[in-house]
Amino acid sequence: MSETTEQTRASRRNEKVGQVVSTKMQKTIVVEVEMRKAHAKYKRIIRSSRKFYAHDEQNTARVGDMVRIRETRPLSKLKRWNLEEILRRSKLAQIEEETKTAAAE
Predict the structure, then answer these.
(1) Span 24-46, mean pLDDT?
(2) SS3 content of the chain, % helix, strand, coil (to 5)
(3) What's the DSSP call for residue 71?
(4) Cα–Cα–Cα angle for 47, 89, 17, nearest 5°?
(5) Coil, helix or strand at residue 49
(6) Which of 4, 79, 104, 105 could disulfide-pair with 53, CB 3.0 to 4.6 Å?
């Protein structure tokens, strides 16, 4: 396969941006994605959220991080997403890393 067909196949997969709400499982994160949609009749913006289980191979994501996940083949009963990248670290994760480095020194 050529490189362009691989890129189009990868880009066809659905991507979502959300916030990590749980990292209690090994190599799995729970990402909450907030969706905004206008009400059909009243046109008021309604916020709804949904949780997705995503595969995090290196366990790099922390609770509160803003992440991008991409749809993938089923990895388990609930896991059908893969962690693509961490867009923004949470303040708690930054403070936690600073205290770890200070304790190591």
Answers:
(1) 96
(2) 25, 45, 30
(3) E
(4) 35
(5) strand
(6) 79
Which residues does residue 66 pair with via DSSP β-bridges, in sequence order? 19, 88
Token pair, residue 31, equals 């990402």
The residue behind tokens 């905004």 is: 36
Question: What is the C-alpha separation between 45 and 68, in angstroms, rounded?
Answer: 23
Q: Of 82, 64, 61, 83, whose CA–CA distance to 73 is shortest?
A: 82
Q: Which residues pair with 86 in a beta bridge?
A: 67
C-beta separation of 28 from 79 below 8 A: yes
Which tens digits make up the pLDDT trace of 55-101? 999 999 999 999 999 999 999 999 999 999 999 998 877 777 777 77
Question: 6-23, pLDDT tens digit by residue?
Answer: 666 556 899 999 999 999
Task: Note the maximum CA span of the chain.
Answer: 61
Residue 5 has pLDDT above 70, yes or no: no
Average pLDDT over residues 42-63: 96
